[in-house]
Design brief:
Elements lengths: L22 E7 L2 E7 L6 E9 L2 E9 L3 H7 L7 H13 L1 H9 L1
Antiparallel strand pairs: 1-2, 2-3, 3-4
Length: 105
Amino acid sequence: MSLPSRLIVECPLCHASYQQEAVRALGETTAGKLFHCSCGTCGRSMMALMRENTGYVSTIGLVTDQTVNDAIRLADRTPISADECIGAHVLLEGESQDFLELLQK
């Protein structure tokens, strides 16, 4: 997988140029090539999905608090199911007062 140095070149938040070593290729699927980008100026990170289609290349970015090590570690994890999300919502909704008190300690 080649580096996207000509396509992923700057932080979308502070517009500083990425250093070449700050853009790491994480993998490739049928959806496209996934990269983690870390900004040395503002300290923020972005996950970028690069797709190649007939005649053009598009990139979709998502600002994240993940480090590149987090992204590598979590890449092979099973996605959270819709039922798990609903269960967490129901639990937090029902126990929110206890949860808030716990957070305040």
